[in-house]
Design goal:
Layout lengths: L7 E6 L3 H16 L3 E7 L6 H6 L4 E3 L10 E4 L4 H14 L6 E2 L4 E2 L10 E2 L4 E2 L4 E2 L4 E2 L4 E2 L4 E2 L4 E2 L4 E2 L4 E2 L4 E2 L4 E2 L4 E2 L4 E2 L4 E2 L8 E3 L4 E2 L13
Length: about 230
């Protein structure tokens, strides 16, 4: 008889909307093969504990409590700078991050997924793609061949990242945006929702529109990214 592997204890950091979405991801993974035992959430804010209870889980305390819990973790927080700070804190305590890939995602060959990467439902990642630590690929996004996504990158729902694109640390690609092949987007830049990036984007810039231009560039009105 083949021995049954014990489920790995898991804690989600961040009990807001994204964190609660990760409950579904964990349940989907476990439906195929029981890999994780979800212990609950840690959060430094005041999340809605009733919502957590209705999902069969609970708040375990502030983030620092994870240092005393023998578990792996995943970060359910969207802000790249917050993910980086939490990663550094958890690494200092010796805690390891889990990598979650939804069973409905299509992930090709020769990909290298960094620790803590989260790939949500119906994502497509083709071949020879690399991700750094705690990268988030949200529902229905696409990442093409040979793309390199550095740590703490976020690709939001429906966005398309084409082949050979480089997204530097902490980049956010907005909902339904498109980044064409061979483009480099600098660290902590934001690509607005629905934008089409056809030329490189400098670090720290917010680029919006079709074609995407930095907010505040001559001829471009300042304001929120297009929705």
């Amino acid at each position: 008889m083949v021995p049954v592997k014990a489920a790995v204890p898991l804690v989600i950091i961040g009990a807001g909307g994204l964190g609660r979405e990760l409950i579904d991801l964990v349940e989907a993974v476990n439906a195929v093969e029981r890999r994780f035992q979800l212990l609950g959430f840690v959060d430094d804010g005041s999340p809605d504990e009733a919502l957590l209870q209705r999902r069969g889980t609970r708040l375990l305390g502030p983030i620092r409590e994870l240092a005393r819990i023998d578990a792996v973790y995943v970060i359910g927080i969207g802000a790249p700078t917050a993910r980086k700070a939490i990663d550094e804190l958890m690494t200092g305590t010796g805690r390891r991050a889990a990598t979650l890939v939804h069973p409905s995602a299509v992930v090709g060959g020769e990909n290298r997924l960094g620790e803590g990467t989260v790939i949500c439902s119906h994502v497509s990642v083709t071949t020879n793609v690399s991700t750094g630590r705690h990268v988030q690929l949200h529902v229905n996004c696409t990442v093409g061949h040979d793309a390199a996504l550095a740590s703490y990158v976020t690709v939001l729902p429906g966005a398309t990242v084409a082949g050979r694109v480089v997204l530097e640390e902490g980049v956010t690609v907005g909902t339904n945006a498109a980044v064409i092949q061979g483009i480099r987007v600098g660290a902590l830049a934001i690509v607005g929702a629905g934008a089409a990036v056809v030329r490189d984007v400098a670090a720290g810039v917010t680029a919006v529109g079709v074609p995407a231009r930095p907010v505040g560039e001559p001829g471009e009105p300042a304001g929120k990214p297009s929705q």
